[in-house]
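Backbone shape codes
____________________
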Amino acid sequence: MSLFAIATRKLFDNSSSPLLTKNPHLCVPSFEGYGQKADIREPGVPLIATHTPYTCLPKSVLDCSPDHCKIVYICRDAFVSLFHYAAKRRPTENEPISLEVAFHLFCEGKSFFGPCWDHILEYWKASQERPDKVMFLKYEDMLNDSVLYVKKLAEFMGYPFSSDEEQVGAVQKIVDLCSFENLSNLEINKTGKRYADDSEATNKYFFRKGKIGDWQNYLTSCRNVRVQEPDHQTRVKTLKNEKSPPIFFTRYD
């Protein structure tokens, strides 16, 4: 939600930000959930969220210049978070599935919004080919140095911090406002609902741990099932570096 706080910091201070009274998904609505509404965005908030694969984005988004539209892609360890979220949203008439079965399905590309591999690589390649339009970030890096990445995001989006703002701690204030600890403990995110007519979509479902590397507590028994396959190895080598866990466990959202 740092994107929202960066873009609206001239409209709201930390005591009046909509992030304090609305679920983040309502502050930056997705066009998957609200695309049929003409007033999808709040006035003065030039942001829309999406899980859509890069190659499936509207042509108007892909073809327009960076002056009119930019894309920020943030990924992290996707599978475990998705597994827990899906379990909470599972209709009571459906049988639960085990972690191992869900893991196999995920590896086979049977996931929301398409195969995780392709989803990540499409945005990664786009960020290499069009760095002025597409910014590719990892949640792990952002969590390790939040101040640095808030400044990078602001610069990329065209909302750079002035020296005066930096001197009064504006960057750190946004980091604090958007931290997992702060947002997850707000009353709206503990008891509210994303959709008023959907009793299952409670806001607390969107907050779990906000920690790095939690996949290791769940996947030790099944992580070697797929990691030796050639197709997997090719993709891991594309994105892996010595400071990050394999992109195999990286989330796109």
The longest strand covers residues 71-76. The mean pLDDT is 78. The beta strands are 71-76, 134-138, 251-252.
